[in-house]
């Protein structure tokens, strides 16, 4: 099995090989798959990441959430933690931690229940996740156990097996442009 470092290197190289048009097109396919999930339909609040560097584009998903009357918040890194800010307009975002788009200002939200759209570098079909190495999502989710978790990824981010840690908090549902993997019957 590859190490997390090797997996990250492979995925980052694969990301560079895909065109902006491909990323946009596949992100729209993934968005439609997520929007069709009962977990999305029933959620009033969505915690979404702001995409960066050929990740699945979340702008389309956020727009769908707004159209459906849902509240949306996006994370900002503060020290070793993530804080979520209500997002009402994309103009609130500016380059932050490692140039990742973050809210410059606004209202901080503490939602005990919501649907989180998680990023990740790589996944396997048991929904294990390799993140970027900061542990931000695991720490946030440890403090917010009632948040439902959906990860979005491109199929090239899927591996047969990825290394796991005892502190990892896996997504319950994983959506790519080709498949949806569920760990729970809730999907």
Structure characterization notes:
The protein has 187 residues and is an alpha/beta fold. The chain has one domain (4-180): 3-Layer(aba) Sandwich (Rossmann fold). It is built from five helices and twelve strands. The strands form three sheets. Strands 6-3-2-1-7-10-11-12 form an eight-stranded mixed beta sheet, sandwiched between helices. A two-stranded antiparallel ribbon has the order 4-5. Strands 8-9 form a two-stranded antiparallel ribbon. Helix 2 runs parallel beside helix 4 (59-67). It starts with a helix and ends in a 5-residue tail after the last strand. InterPro entries: FTHF_cligase, FTHF_cligase-like_sf, NagB/RpiA_transferase-like. Its EC number is 6.3.3.2. It comes from Blautia wexlerae. It catalyses: (6S)-5-formyl-5,6,7,8-tetrahydrofolate + ATP = (6R)-5,10-methenyltetrahydrofolate + ADP + phosphate.
Task: Break the fold down into its secondary structure elements and pairings.
Blueprint: H1 4-17, H2 20-35, H3 38-42, E1 45-48, H4 59-67, E2 71-78, E3 81-86, E4 93-95, E5 101-103, E6 108-109, E7 115-118, E8 122-123, E9 129-130, H5 136-143, E10 148-152, E11 173-175, E12 180-182
Parallel strand pairs: 1-2, 1-7, 7-10, 10-11
Antiparallel strand pairs: 2-3, 3-6, 4-5, 8-9, 11-12
Helix pairs in contact: 2-4
Provide a concise account of the structure shown.
The protein is an alpha/beta fold and 187 residues long. The protein has helices at 4-17, 20-35, 38-42, 59-67, 136-143; strands at 45-48, 71-78, 81-86, 93-95, 101-103, 108-109, 115-118, 122-123, 129-130, 148-152, 173-175, 180-182.
């Amino acid at each position: 099995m590859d190490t997390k470092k090797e997996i990250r290197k492979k995925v980052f190289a694969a990301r560079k090989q895909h065109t902006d048009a491909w990323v946009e097109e596949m992100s729209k396919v993934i968005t439609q798959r997520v929007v069709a999930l009962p977990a999305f339909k029933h959620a009033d609040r969505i915690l979404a990441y702001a995409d960066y560097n050929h990740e699945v584009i979340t702008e389309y998903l956020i727009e769908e959430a707004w159209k459906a009357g849902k509240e949306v918040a996006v994370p900002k890194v503060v020290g070793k933690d993530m804080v979520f800010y209500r997002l009402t307009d994309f103009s609130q975002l500016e380059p932050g931690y490692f140039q990742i788009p973050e809210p410059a200002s606004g209202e901080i939200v503490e939602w005990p229940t919501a649907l989180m759209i998680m990023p990740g570098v790589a996944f396997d079909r048991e929904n294990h996740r390799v993140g970027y190495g900061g542990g931000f999502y695991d720490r946030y989710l440890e403090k917010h156990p009632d948040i439902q978790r959906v990860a979005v990824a491109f199929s090239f981010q899927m591996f047969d097996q990825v290394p796991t840690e005892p502190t990892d908090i896996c997504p319950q549902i994983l959506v790519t442009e080709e498949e949806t993997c569920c760990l729970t019957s809730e999907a």
